[in-house]
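In response to reviewer comment 3 from the previous cycle, which asked for concrete evidence that the modeling workflow produces usable outputs, we include below a single protein chain processed end to end. The sequence was submitted unchanged, and the resulting structure tokens are shown without manual editing.
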Amino acid sequence: MVLEDYFDFISPDDIRIKGTRIGIETVLEDYLEGASPEEIAVRYRSLSLEQVYVTITYYLCNKSQIEKYLQNWRTYTDEAAQSQDSNPSDLVKRLRQLQANTIKSNIFLCKYKRR
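The workflow returned the following structure tokens.
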């Protein structure tokens, strides 16, 4: 068995489990947070238990390389989230405004009911 045969190496920063759109970071983050392989397989129904175990085995066999991959992925997602927060789309702006208006309405209603 060749572990790499279980993955699609789309780019140095994008390794996916073959036959799925799931990146290895998805499985590994859950695993590193304490989820068992069985829990992960139940959580992501498009993955077989074999694929979960192979992903974990690949990580354990290439730990320093995959740790770097995971750190790059975390950095990328953090930067993307910060960018989205500081430059929200028009839709996000509208949703935030609706949420603020709803909160104001609820506060008003609570004050009105107390009288």
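The longest helix spans residues 90-114. We consider this sufficient to address the reviewer's concern, and the full set will be provided in the supplementary archive.
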